[in-house]
Amino acid sequence: MLISFDAQAVPRVLPRRPLLRMGIILAERFTLCAFATLVDHLRVAADEGHQSRQWRVKWSIMWARKEPISASCGARVEPTSSLSSPEELDYVMMVGGVPRAGTQVDEVTLRYLLQTGATSFSLIGIRTGRFVLCRAGVLQRRRSRVSWYHYQDFRERFPDHEVVAHRLFLPDGLRITCAGGAGTAALAASLLERHLVHAAALKADQFLLFDRPRGACDAQPHAQIAKCVDESRVRRTLFPMEKNLTQRLPFRAAATELGISVRQLERLCRRHFGVGPAALYRQMRMRLAHWPIENTNRPVIEIAIGAGFNDDAHFSRQFKGTCGLLPPRRRRWAHRSSATDRTVTRVFE
């Protein structure tokens, strides 16, 4: 089926000023993927054609200093403006980077965020940008959306903040937090739909080859259990399991690699998870399969093989034992629930 973009749905009369104005602050060693995904969505929707003119959407890369900002991959981006007055913007977006790479921003930027947050203004934290917003003191009494990979680190640094780790992005009043990656695309499309029209968001998604629009209610892929476990021996036990989810893991070899006996491996798993290593490993492979069953239309047999099962019949029995429904019924249930969520949930207050 060929899906085409209806150019008539986008008003051809250009606005007197941009309908969406975004100020972007990049942390030191920021994540390039999150920044590029955001800006490319804005760029594609900003005008007619693909000349990257900032007509309907305007964005600037703000920085307290004049030198380029380095991404975690080594790329460098030149700032295009100083820290602008909130009156000139609709949103200030903080794009974070490596969480343990120092302070990420200077004191001038933290004061700017604090002063901006003290007004009726929307602030957005992308990836570890929420760490910076917390340091600036503008996320009190707000829920924060974090990636599974940064969940434990965030809880340790900000134990008084409520944290959510199962959605792509999370609006909470005038604060929006996003895990990055695919969540950035979902957030960008939601902003475009809110300030422009649905067709502009659809145009950006289609041009950038995203398969479908995704909203704040969509779930992110599964977490890595080992990232959320404190005891070092348990983490060492879990890592080989998580690295070998797509193929059967011989536990005797895993125990040998860890320098413990099979009996010790059994005791560790039962002490911390209540089940033996084989049952835990099966649960982890089910979790790997659970997300694509609910969020994609990939064939069940393909998902089964990707989770280390040789045939879909055995996989379906195991899946039903874990989730209560056979994979096709679970998929239909998830699609109906997702459609209901998107209908009844207001993404922005």
Explain this structure:
This protein is an alpha/beta fold and 349 residues long. The protein has 2 domains: 7-207, Rossmann fold; 225-335, Homeodomain-like (Arc Repressor Mutant, subunit A), CATH 1.10.10. The protein contains 13 helices and 10 strands. It has helices spanning 32-46, 107-117, 129-136, 151-157, 182-195, 198-207, 232-243, 251-258, 262-273, 277-295, 300-306, 312-323, 327-344, and strands at 20-26, 57-62, 69-70, 76-77, 91-95, 122-126, 144-145, 163-164, 169-172, 175-178. The strands form 3 sheets. The protein has a 6-stranded mixed β-sheet, sandwiched between helices. β5, α2 and β6 (122-126) form a beta-alpha-beta unit. The longest helix has 19 residues, at 277-295. The radius of gyration is 23 Å and the shape is globular. The two termini are 36 Å apart.
Summarize this structure briefly.
By secondary structure, the protein is of the alpha/beta class. It has helices at residues 32-46, 107-117, 129-136, 151-157, 182-195, 198-207, 232-243, 251-258, 262-273, 277-295, 300-306, 312-323, 327-344; strands at 20-26, 57-62, 69-70, 76-77, 91-95, 122-126, 144-145, 163-164, 169-172, 175-178.
SS element count, helices: 13
Strand content: 5-15%
State Rg: 23 Å
Structural class: alpha/beta
Mean pLDDT: 77
CATH C-level label of the largest domain: Alpha Beta
Essential attributes:
349 residues, alpha/beta, Rossmann fold, Arc Repressor Mutant, subunit A, six-stranded mixed β-sheet, two-stranded antiparallel ribbon, 13 helices, 10 strands, 44% helix, globular
Topology readout:
Layout: E1 20-26, H1 32-46, E2 57-62, E3 69-70, E4 76-77, E5 91-95, H2 107-117, E6 122-126, H3 129-136, E7 144-145, H4 151-157, E8 163-164, E9 169-172, E10 175-178, H5 182-195, H6 198-207, H7 232-243, H8 251-258, H9 262-273, H10 277-295, H11 300-306, H12 312-323, H13 327-344
Helix pairs in contact: 1-5, 1-6, 2-3, 5-6
